[in-house]
Automatic annotation (TrEMBL):
Span of the signal peptide: none
Record-linked SUPFAM superfamilies: MFS general substrate transporter
Keyword Magnesium on entry: no
Organism: Pyruvatibacter mobilis
Keywords tagged on the record: Membrane, Transmembrane, Transmembrane helix
CDD domains (UniProt xref): MFS_NepI_like
Any Pfam family matching the protein: MFS_1
GO MF assignments: transmembrane transporter activity
Protein name (database record): MFS transporter
Domain Major facilitator superfamily (MFS) profile: 29-413
Transmembrane segments: 30-48, 60-83, 95-113, 119-140, 152-171, 183-202, 232-253, 323-345, 357-382, 388-409
InterPro entries from the UniProt entry: MFS, MFS_dom, MFS_trans_sf
Keyword Transmembrane helix: yes
Length: 413
């Protein structure tokens, strides 16, 4: 990635100092970048609790409304594949500013859309430009002392988790009392604030690098890495289905709990999403445990826990209180499956980690988009039972692939 040294400016007494070494981020700047990560990440998750309100307003079915999160996630995967590698050429600050501006325009369009097709288009464009959360960690890694990198990474990760939590909880309450459009109006205002704030926090970095290869060559360089490290496809597939379970279940809950059968408002969906706050405390500890026992072995146990939670969904769907049991269990292990998946390839050569991460994220969000739409289609076809059975099928496949991954690593040892 770029931004390895700050860009010198013409004039001013600080040119020599800034050119000699990058200025470290202050604690305040780091937390502001974490806040920006939270705001940017939240945009994809507002739809979860208010999905029934949006479908009703546009007069579309549960299957059709699934296109909104599905196209958002698929477009995000495409954006990661096409745009993230540009970080090796172009200033992180410049790219972040462009991507945030694109998101701001897209989410404002969603708030104002009067036609469902325009709303879906806005969500799709929004997903395509949601690249900043994957650029900011690289930027921060070059703006903090090496001995503080772990802390800085944890702060950014906490921001992302907090953004997902506040998006689902806040959107549910706001949508219930002020209508679903108010959610996207508020989101557009927050993004406008971020578009002003981020350029002030981030240093320009050095000028864009000289390009020794074409853009097509940069993208195609990913293919030989896949051939040399096919295990990345296994980790990506596991996370794609695990992420798909998360999206499908929460979209299903948004439709199920607000249905005439259950009779709750979107605020209740938001309150239920607040259980995600557990991740802030448990995820670092589970990650530390994975360090001790090994990524593949820990992933198997986490997927067993996920399967145990998902298996309860078809039977507990009639009771809000019983639903809390599988939701808490799934919240505990879900992020840890992702962490162990990343651990399997982040131990490889530093020279290819960024491209391995690109492959992993593309598979993750592509699968998440497909399975999230499958979740709303299953709900439209067979209600909550259909949605839960889809999640159960995916969870069984996730466990099976995790066992294959453990067997392969044991054989290699």
């Amino acid at each position: 990635m770029s931004d390895s040294t700050p860009e010198s400016s013409t004039g001013g007494p600080s040119v020599t100092a800034s050119a000699a070494a990058p200025q470290h981020l202050s604690t305040g700047q780091l937390y502001l970048l974490a806040l920006a990560s939270a705001v940017i990440t939240a945009n994809a998750y507002y739809i979860h609790p208010i999905i029934a309100l949006v479908a009703e307003d546009f007069g579309v079915s549960a299957a059709a409304i699934g296109a909104v999160p599905a196209f958002n996630q698929i477009a995000l995967a495409l954006g990661i594949f096409l745009l993230l590698p540009l970080g090796d050429w172009v200033s992180n600050r410049r790219l972040t500013s462009i991507f945030v501006a694109g998101q701001t325009i897209a989410i404002a369009g969603m708030a104002l859309a009067t036609d469902f097709r325009l709303f879906v288009a806005g969500s799709t464009v929004l997903g395509f430009f949601t690249i900043a959360p994957y650029l900011l960690p690289a930027y921060v890694s070059r703006r903090v002392p090496p001995e503080k990198l772990g802390h800085a990474t944890a702060v950014l990760t906490t921001g992302i988790i907090g953004g997902i939590l506040l998006a689902r909880a806040g959107a549910g309450v706001l949508g219930e009392y002020m209508g679903w459009r108010s959610v996207y109006v508020a989101a557009a205002m927050l993004m406008l604030l971020m578009s002003i704030l981020l350029p002030l926090i981030m240093e320009q970095g050095r000028r864009d690098r000289a390009r020794s290869e074409t853009y097509a060559g940069l993208i195609l360089s990913i293919l030989p890495i896949i051939r040399r490290h096919p295990d990345i496809l296994l980790s990506g597939a596991i996370q794609a289905m695990s992420f798909g379970i998360f999206l499908a279940v929460w979209l299903g809950l948004g439709l199920h709990l607000t249905s005439p059968q259950m009779g709750y408002g979107t605020d209740v969906v938001g309150y239920l999403a607040a259980f995600s706050i557990l991740n802030l405390a448990t995820t670092p500890r589970l990650g530390a445990w994975a360090d001790k026992v090994g990524a593949e072995r820990a992933r198997v146990w986490f997927t067993v826990g996920q399967l145990a939670g998902v298996a309860c969904l078809p039977f507990f769907g009639h009771s809000l209180w019983l639903l809390m049991i599988p939701i808490v269990l799934m919240n505990l292990v879900g992020p840890s499956i992702d962490i162990t998946g990343r651990m399997t390839f982040l131990r490889l050569s530093p020279d290819i980690r960024t491209r391995l991460m690109t492959i992993y994220i593309v598979i993750m969000f592509g699968g998440g988009g497909i399975f999230s739409w499958a979740g709303t289609i299953a709900y439209d076809w067979a209600g909550w039972t259909g949605n839960a059975m889809l999640a159960l099928t995916l969870s069984i496949l996730v466990l099976a692939l995790s066992l294959i991954g453990l067997r392969l690593i044991n054989r290699a040892v």
